Amino acid sequence: MTEAEWLACEDPTPMLEFLQGQVSERKLRLFAVACSRRIWKLLANEPRQWIEVAEQYADGLVTQKELNNAATVAKQAVGGRSANLAANADAFSATYAAVDSIDATSADAASILAANAVAHEQTRGAETVTGWDDAWKDERVIHSQLLHCIVANSFRPVTINAAWLSWNDSTVRRIAQAIYDERAFDRMPIMADALEDSGCSNADILNHCRQPGEHVRGCHVLDLLLGKQ
């Protein structure tokens, strides 16, 4: 995959194939989590808890044992096809993928299942092959945008200047931490302003912070500022 192909890609599958072995398990898990969070309204409390455990594990807040326990419960629920867990089977299957062992292939499976859930729900009662396909493809485009948020352009790697982080009593780092902790991604443009004030002129970083698209935990700019991999 070339840089131009990476930047233009709207399908997570080739992106994840390209990333095989090049990106951390944490980022792959947070991608699966981000896809599952888009179907939050389709889920009952239990699969929502699986998503939260997966996210907490990615950031070292719960143990491997706690993740394994959540995965075991999720696997049993998926195998039993518990109808009370979600609006449709694909929805809670996607959440199981988020707590199961993760690699690029299983992260793509999580995306596919979440897109299936969205397409099923959007076309419920008026399902046609074309309508289902269109809804599925639209959701997968959004997933590709989430992946672009989480994984930086490896063809043009960026680094963080320590002076940006120490500027004005660590203002940039404090803003970044608050955004991450509070899921306050609407404040990303504010962080861009602070970065500029600190001396950052990197267009890739600033443009990413100001882009209108959705940001999620694992966002590569936030991760750079907070020292996460």
Topology:
Layout: H1 3-8, H2 12-19, H3 25-37, H4 45-58, H5 64-80, H6 89-99, H7 104-122, H8 129-150, H9 162-182, H10 188-198, H11 203-210, H12 220-226
Helix pairs in contact: 2-7, 3-4, 3-6, 3-7, 3-8, 4-5, 4-6, 5-6, 6-7, 7-8, 9-10, 10-11
Describe this protein's structure:
- The longest helix is centred in the middle third of the chain and has 22 residues.
- The protein is mostly helical.
- The two termini are 22 Å apart.
- The chain has 12 helices and no strands.
- The protein has 2 domains: 148 residues, no CATH class; 65 residues, no CATH class.
- The model has no long low-confidence stretch (mean pLDDT 93).
General shape:
globular
Query: Number of folding domains?
Result: 2
The helix/strand series, from N terminus to C terminus, equals HHHHHHHHHHHH
What is the mean pLDDT? 93
As residue ranges, the low-confidence spans are: none
Roughly how many Å is the radius of gyration?
Answer: 18 Å
Please report the distance between the alpha carbons of the first and last residues.
Answer: 22 Å
Number of separate helices: 12
Strands, count: 0
Counting helices, strands and paired strands, the structural category is: mainly alpha
Helix content: 55-70%
Percentage of residues in strands: under 5%
Largest sheet: none
